[in-house]
Design goal:
six-stranded parallel sheet; 36% helix; 2 domains; Rossmann fold; 242 residues; five-stranded mixed sheet; elongated; alpha/beta; Dihydrodipicolinate Reductase, domain 2
Amino acid sequence: MNIAILGYGRMGREIERIAKKRNHTISAIFDIDKPFDKSSDMNATEVLIDFTLQDAVLGNLETAAFFGIPIVEGTTGWLDHFKDVQNMANLTMVYSPNFSLGVYMFTKLAEYAAKLLGSLGEYDCYLHEWHHRGKADSPSGTAKKLADVLLSQLPDKEKLLFETSHGKIDPAALHVTSSRVGRIPGTHEIGFDSDFDFIQLKHQAHGREGFAYGAVRAAEWIASKKGIFTMDDFMDSLDSSG
């Protein structure tokens, strides 16, 4: 395929490397010095992969819809505007806060663990995530997704607490905390604690390769489709293909 990359930071460069490794061609690269807009030459491009900034997402999606080119949207922090995105005519997109196949499976494990342990009523739960100091959003989009999944399965939790607590925490709050330090590519940890024992689930990325690999695989999948899709749609297709 001919793939155009939006955003040429560390993720963009890793996507370029993985795409070429999988025998794709990079038809264009857009960044601060070369913006993606309706005057861009997209004749050779079959699919777009976007890892830019949340403020750029709506414009990038509008331009993708203008050209009628499918887009893999990996930028986080824009979902408050999802209704606006749904109203965009001619938009084909697959989106996720995290395209790592391992993170997807970790989310499913977390959901199942919360369902099992939440039914007992004996375990309290927390979620903490670590990322590099240059990450723009906190908590991460992945942490927010995990938090929503946990909340849906924990009968004793009614709300999410993303901020530091300076007093006693409401037992009905699921505490979600973040650290930004150094070059950590991404770590998410979930703990279930009771009077009797402690159970921990943890996903630790070795680097950005897993995120880039998943995004390129998603690009391969969506190139021939129409509509708006999620990571669930993409992963279900992998399951059904064996």
